[in-house]
Amino acid sequence: MVVRSFGPVIVIHGGAGKIAPDLVEARRAGIQAAATHGWQVLTAGGSAVEAVERAVRTLEDDPAFNAGRGACLNRDGEIELDASIMDGRNLAAGAIGAVKRIANPVTLARAVMEAGGPVLLVGEGARQFAAVVGIAECGADALITERQRARWATLQEENAVGVGTVGAVALDRSGHLAAATSTGGLPLKAPGRVGDSALIGCGTYADDQLGAVSCTGNGEAIIKLALAKTALEFLAVGEEPMTAARRAVGELTIRTGAGVGIILLDRYGRIGTARNTAQMACACIRNDNADPEFFD
Ligand code: ASP
Fold it and tell me: Which positions are catalytic residues (predicted)?
């Protein structure tokens, strides 16, 4: 069977879970802007890696999302950020975990990838690396929004769910895939907790031979199922992208009962998405039509 390539394609998610009614519009506008920025990179001949980094940066800068500015606070009332990026062309990958005072964690993750040494740097070491590569720190308060501070003050541990993690997958004109994910993690998380969004194979994965994935939702469950790689294994045995996404989320649901969502692209640029949560705002641009399509 000949499967036509649909590249370039970019798909964005703005986190799995119930979206507060007063954030619905802002989230939609945010993922639209992110998809458009990533698309502009792709149509200008940029790489999938550049496109997913650009798209995720847009959402890190947008206080309506739980990534970069606007991220949720941990138990101590501080922001600790996780992010990762992967290049399907050569399996290059970079990630940072529990890092403070970095406005665009995805760019730091990309710098880790490009340095070509460790794949994952955490905490203080990640900050030191940022200084070495010339990524400036911001003040701790610069990333904290009033909304998240108020939420921290009133949240009870038992109903603390993270919503608003961001991610992107893209296929560029040269047929290369990339994926990136960025988050503040779960509200009231333990200081030092690193979630799936920093872990290659769990929250993020890209391999030109298979596909690209970004996950969101309960990080502990996603780690246990290595969800991004698990979804791609379903593609590898011949499932359609939509079926692969659904089977991965279905298996996680059965095994853990946790709430998650994923976006996926196969190497032909075909899209798969699945969630077991109430909502997961998504947008994509493809087929040389610059108007984003939205789905949930
Ligand atoms: N997966 C993220 C984490 O557990 C949270 C989320 O996607 O909402 O850190």
Answer: 165 (nucleophile)
Q: Whose CA is nearest to atom 4 of ligand 1?
A: 219
CA distances from 280 to 5, 136, 144, 180, 283 (A): 26, 32, 23, 16, 10
Q: What pLDDT shows up at residue 156?
A: 65
Helix (H, G, I), strand (E, B) or coil at 120: strand
pLDDT at 174: 95
Q: In the chain, which ranges are continuous DSSP H helix?
A: 24-43, 48-60, 105-115, 123-132, 146-154, 219-225, 227-236, 241-256
When computed from its CA atoms, the radius of gyration of the chain, rounded to whole angstroms, is 17
Pocket, ligand 1, Cβ cutoff 6 A: 15, 82, 162-163, 165, 183, 185-186, 195-197, 216-217, 219, 222
Measured between alpha carbons, how far is 109 from 247 in angstroms, rounded to an integer? 29
Report the candidate in 58, 13, 27 with the shortest Cα–Cα distance to residue 147. 27
Angle at 277 between CA 230 and CA 88, to 5 degrees: 35
DSSP state of 159: G
Instruction: From 79, 197, 213, give the residue whose CB has the most ligand 1 atoms within 8 Å, as the site to mutate.
Output: 197
pLDDT of residue 59: 98
Distance 259 CA to ligand 1 centre (A): 10
Distance separating alpha carbons of residues 168 and 204, to the nearest angstrom = 9
Q: Give SS3 for 79.
A: coil
Does the annotation mark 183 as catalytic? no
Q: What is the mean pLDDT of each run of 10 residues along the chain (296 residues)?
A: 68 93 93 97 97 98 97 96 98 98 98 98 97 95 93 72 88 97 96 98 98 98 98 97 98 98 97 96 86 83
What domains, with CATH codes, occur in the chain? Answer: 9-295 (3.60.20.30)
Q: How far apart are CA 296 and CA 85, in angstroms?
A: 23
